[in-house]
Amino acid sequence: MAKTKDISLIGVPIDLGADRRGVDMGPSALRVAAIESRLASLGYTVHDEGDLVVRRPSGYGAFGPKLKFLEEIGAVCDELHRNVSSAMERGRFPLVLGGDHSLAFGSISGVLQHKRSVGVIWFDAHADLNTDETSPSGNIHGMSLALALGIGHPKLTAIGGVDKKIDPSKVVIVGARSIDPGERKLIRELGIKVFSMHDIDRLGMTRVMEETIDIVRDGTDGVHLSLDLDGLDPEEAPGVGTPVIGGMTYREGHLAMELLSEAGCVVSMDIVEVNPILDHRNKTALVAVELAASLLGERIL
Ligand SMILES: NC(=[NH2+])NCCC[C@H](N)C(=O)O
Ligand SMILES: [Mn+2]
Ligand SMILES: [Mn+2]
């Protein structure tokens, strides 16, 4: 699908944005699941750029339990912003291997450096639209979409340049089934389009993705896909830290990727929340690699 034939794999071994430890081993689990050779078999030249360095904290840090590990997460997102940006500068497709979902505002700000306007598809059981004021947990992985919209702690929203953020009318959340009260309020205020599991059940994935693609592609010059594995049902993707029952099936996930691949609009991607400690025989990383391969052009026939 993508016009670019070079992919940069950027590992971000961070688990500080979430409560359950172990998601920092996600990049390794995805490599063990053969992400590099799978994408190479589709004709891409894959450049594995290794992992970013994540500082080890001693406590929650200066901002306390309402914004846990803000300094370390901010530092790694700043670094990721530079890495994604330089991959795009070299004409490569940045594929970010997480790590928890806090990293996404770093990758999105990197993409924004190169595009006038970017659409975002947030594939997730959650909305990740909390701020330090609304978050029930203080975990930054539940705040990253809000941060990408420029909402949240200024120390984090400043990453990548304050003036350029994504437009809420160009964001679509797909697969949501666990939304906090403050997030619901923000979704209404900003008019963010959400296809919840209820909508997927009623409309079917084909219609959901057709409408999603229309929204994110219209008036933008590229789409960032942020794929949180907990969007899938825990039956298909058990290795995640915040599983929510009633998610997408394996086929629904694939169909979404195949339709996106046909649309040819995705320019960058995150794979996040793969936690091998909670997984069964690397099942979740293997599914993630399947989905990435579908997105990047693999077909049944
Ligand atoms: N990326 C994720 N898995 N986010 C889960 C967020 C859970 C909850 N909404 C919170 O803010 O704490
Ligand atoms: Mn998420
Ligand atoms: Mn999630």
UniProtKB/TrEMBL annotation:
UniProt-annotated binding residues for Mn(2+) 1: 101, 128, 228, 230
Catalytic activity reported: L-arginine + H2O = urea + L-ornithine
Transmembrane segments: none
Gene3D superfamilies recorded: Ureohydrolase domain (3.40.800.10)
One of the GO biological process terms: arginine metabolic process
Annotated positions binding Mn(2+) 2: 124, 126
Record keyword Membrane present: no
Family: Belongs to the arginase family.
Listed PROSITE patterns: ARGINASE_1, ARGINASE_2
Superkingdom, taxonomy of origin: Bacteria
Keywords: Arginine metabolism, Hydrolase, Manganese, Metal-binding
Pathway where it operates: Nitrogen metabolism; urea cycle; L-ornithine and urea from L-arginine: step 1/1
Any matching Pfam family: Arginase
Official protein name in the record: Arginase
GO CC, one annotated term: cytoplasm
